[in-house]
What we know:
With about 170 residues, this protein is mainly beta. Helix content is about 10%, strand content about 45%. The chain is elongated. The termini are far apart.
Amino acid sequence: MTKWNKYLPVILLALCSVSWVACTQQRQPCLTPKIASLIMETIHFKTDTSTVFVDTALPSGLFIPLTNIGIDSIKYPLGSTFTLSLSPDTTICQWRFTSDTLNAVAYYDTFTFYYQRKLQFLSNACGYTDFYSIDSVHTTHHIVDSLHIINTSVTNNVNTKHLQVYIRHNF
């Protein structure tokens, strides 16, 4: 019996440690996207008649934020769908857009987004995030011919397109 007495404190400590670890609640990971992103699709005119559209990728689209949202710029290599973030600090956000980085200085348009913010609870694991409701979008018309708002509700759903941008045929 005395032989086991010297190991008893170690055994009790090990049992207490195992039971403490077993009772510790594991936090669930956040599997939901937290950031609500605005998804834009660009569509080219095939001819200068502005009646026939073709979905072609832009060579190297570039977006530069004019509103401070913590991003320097976003370059999209060969694409026709773009994802932008709206500022959670204000209800107006501006981005400069060019269809090709080679023309970044000469030809660009400015997008101004007007929207409402709504704090949305996602889950205990994910917490809160901002969702947006687009009121209107204004743009200059150097590269962009026109735009169409498809869906005004900007949430964390990555499959929803919000804006179609029609690019002039010569860009």
